[in-house]
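ok, trying the design again with the full structure, not the truncated one.
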């Protein structure tokens, strides 16, 4: 609901041709206009602030920012799962699990998750497929504590991993990510679903929940002819 309202408010700004410096309607007015709660409006406006489309002047209200003419679709500053991102791009996808196992963490995984380097993590390798062609190849790691009494091999990871984590009490809220151009590991590049001729953009990401706990570390290879990541830059104030 919040995300839908955020997108609706972006359309409102464009449709009504609000200019930088013009005031956004109040929370009360927006709630009445779209038949939603003020709490929903408040959260949607916070997302617009994060996207740099709205400025807040304390004691006066919210105003269209100077960045409104530079808005980009699906900016990298917006947190969303790969499942959400692919759906937003219009792809109907399936997830295929390549492997899921208990494993010793790499130094990078141990640091990102805050786990003992001598302990165990769950490592999940998956393909995100559209018409039997891989769009994303992902390697994800999380603490074995999230398994409870389950074993990795007994669980179904063909759905959204973010939703699975939310069901375990860890709703992912934000992340820190690094974007690089790296060669794909040979064992993944050799898969028949993976087009080795394409360029792949790698996002290494540490995700935290609402309490700020490190829950997930992933390295995901995005097919270069499908994905473009947009950046909106602003001067600090």
């Amino acid at each position: 609901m919040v995300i839908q309202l955020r997108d609706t408010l972006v359309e409102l700004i464009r449709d009504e041709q609000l200019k930088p410096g013009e005031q956004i309607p109040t929370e009360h007015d927006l709630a009445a206009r779209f038949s939603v709660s003020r709490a929903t409006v408040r959260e949607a406006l916070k997302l617009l602030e994060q996207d740099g489309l709205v400025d807040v002047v304390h004691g006066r209200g919210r105003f269209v920012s100077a960045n409104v003419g530079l808005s980009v679709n699906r900016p990298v500053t917006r947190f969303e799962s790969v499942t959400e991102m692919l759906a937003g791009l219009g792809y109907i996808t399936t997830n295929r699990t390549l492997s899921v196992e208990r494993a010793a963490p790499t130094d990078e995984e141990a640091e990102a998750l805050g786990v003992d380097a001598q302990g165990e993590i769950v490592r999940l390798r998956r393909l995100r497929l559209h018409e039997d062609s891989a769009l994303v190849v992902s390697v994800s790691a999380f603490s074995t504590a999230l398994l409870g009494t389950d074993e990795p091999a007994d669980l179904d990871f063909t759905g959204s991993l973010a939703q699975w984590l939310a069901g375990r009490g860890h709703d992912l809220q934000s992340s820190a990510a690094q974007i690089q151009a790296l060669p794909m590991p040979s064992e993944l590049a050799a898969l028949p679903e993976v087009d080795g001729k394409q360029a792949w953009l790698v996002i290494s990401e540490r995700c935290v929940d609402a309490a700020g706990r490190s829950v997930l570390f992933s390295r995901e290879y995005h097919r270069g002819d499908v994905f473009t990541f947009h950046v909106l830059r602003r001067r600090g104030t």
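Keeping the full-length input from now on. Strands lie at 54-57, 61-64, 94-103, 121-130, 133-143, 172-181, 200-209, 214-223.
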